Structure to design on (224 residues):
């Protein structure tokens, strides 16, 4: 099956811990994105990557880090520097030459 | 000023009626416009894209775009209870990186 997968579906983190959220796609999409969604707010862009080994900060990159070593994978690390990390995290990708973004199922992160 | 504005709702319509969802945007040179449907606890699903002024129909969905008024809308005909969800308007801005800005969404409730 082709698609975008995110794991885990639910993640619990203690304060002070770093955690890594996985995003994988087998659609051969070049561009990948990470968003954060909080209740009553729109999606906010954390990081994006248009090609392998290159990525750019979005609007709210502080406290987050990413890597793009393979076209299929774009993991997001939520570091202890992120002060309010509890949120729904969404990964998306875009086919080459398209404008539309397609989303994975999301990871819900809760800080205990 | 928010870049993409939507009424948060809830918008309640009876089953079988037409639901009308509205969105305004601030960037006059925006190129492309999208509507996503998001069920509670799930990720957004793309349902319509529109690029030029006028109407675009796909099944029970019609997207309407008026660039002069910076207004985009989504009509859902013969609304069904399964259409009950939050609808996100998204706008692709021009520029070096084509950033997509999302509205906060309108919650639609279809009453059986």
């Amino acid at each position: 099956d082709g698609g975008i997968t995110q794991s885990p579906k639910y993640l619990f983190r203690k304060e002070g811990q770093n955690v890594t959220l996985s995003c994988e796609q087998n659609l051969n999409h070049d561009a990948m994105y990470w968003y954060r969604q909080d209740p009553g707010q729109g999606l906010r862009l954390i990081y994006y990557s248009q090609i392998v080994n290159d990525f750019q900060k979005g609007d709210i990159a502080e406290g987050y880090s990413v890597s793009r070593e393979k076209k299929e994978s774009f993991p997001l690390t939520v570091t202890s520097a992120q002060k309010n990390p509890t949120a729904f995290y969404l990964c998306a990708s875009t086919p080459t030459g398209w404008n539309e973004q397609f989303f994975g199922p999301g990871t819900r992160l809760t800080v205990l | 000023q928010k870049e993409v504005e939507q009424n948060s709702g809830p918008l309640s319509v009876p089953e079988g009626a037409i639901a009308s969802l509205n969105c305004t945007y601030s960037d006059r040179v925006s190129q492309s416009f999208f509507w996503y449907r998001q069920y509670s606890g799930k990720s957004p699903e793309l349902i319509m894209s529109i690029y030029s002024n006028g109407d675009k129909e796909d099944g029970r969905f019609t997207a309407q775009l008026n660039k002069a008024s910076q207004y985009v809308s989504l009509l859902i005909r013969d609304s069904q209870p399964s259409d009950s969800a939050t609808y996100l308007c998204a706008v692709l801005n021009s520029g070096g990186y084509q950033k997509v800005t999302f509205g906060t969404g309108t919650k639609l409730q279809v009453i059986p």
About this structure: Residues 31 and 50 of chain A are 4 Å apart (CA to CA).
